[in-house]
Design goal:
This protein has about 200 residues and is an alpha/beta fold. It has one domain (about 5-15, about 20-195): Alpha-Beta Complex (Spore Coat Polysaccharide Biosynthesis Protein SpsA, Chain A). The protein has seven helices and nine strands; from the N terminus they run βββαβαβαβαββααβα. It is globular, with a radius of gyration of 16 Å. The model has no long low-confidence stretch (mean pLDDT about 90).
């Protein structure tokens, strides 16, 4: 069976939240969002879990305390998602993996069942990138095949994997997991609508 590691991106600045508030420290039934996302991944059969931290990393790591995972600090987190992806894909835990499931930490509606569906699709296919979708609308999480790990390690700025996929001609398989694939948290309104409670004010 193909081995798949988990990569949780939790380095962003929450720039659209009120000053001093971090969306990943907002709570859902008393659990910080970043911990909720990590626990969702850990309940699946991913081989390992690595979390990329950046903005307010010490608080993010404290929210994850006690969970069986690794963290890696992206010192270039202000550059955007591409820099965080590169940092994550360079982590030693992925060296022998056939794929890596990448999840954004601000997607509270993603369930372990969604992740399992994506993993089953990846393991039953041939080196395609598997992407969560809402119908024909691409979203997250995404399972990246090992064939393009080296290219992912070279990303920078705010670039995602789109250019790599086009350049390497990697096939993409879309798996419908419903609206959860598109539901991330950017604003206070998004947070409240998803059932979260804003907290985590800091410097």
């Amino acid at each position: 069976m193909k081995t798949v590691g988990g990569l949780l991106l939790a380095a962003g600045r929450s720039s659209r939240m009120p000053e001093g508030c971090h969306k990943l420290l907002a709570e859902f039934e008393g659990v910080p969002l970043v911990r909720k996302s990590a626990e969702t991944m850990l309940r699946s059969d991913l081989g390992s879990l690595t979390v990329v931290t950046g903005h307010r990393s010490s608080e993010i790591e404290m929210a994850l305390k006690g969970l069986p995972l690794s963290t890696t600090y992206n010192k270039h987190f202000e550059e955007g998602m591409g820099a965080s992806l590169a940092c994550g894909f360079r982590h030693a835990s992925f060296a022998d993996c056939d794929g890596v499931l990448v999840m954004l930490a601000d997607m509270p509606e993603i369930t372990t069942e969604h992740i399992t569906k994506l993993l089953m699709a990846f393991r039953s296919g041939q080196d395609a990138l598997v992407r969560g979708a809402d119908g024909d609308k691409p979203g997250h999480p995404v399972v990246v095949p090992s064939a393009i790990f080296s290219q992912m390690q070279k990303l920078d700025g705010d670039k995602g994997a789109k250019e790599v996929l086009q350049r390497q001609k990697v096939p993409v398989r879309m798996i419908d997991i419903g609206n959860a694939a598109l539901k991330d948290i950017d604003t206070v309104q998004d947070l409240v609508a998803a059932g979260g409670e804003l907290c985590g004010r800091g410097e």
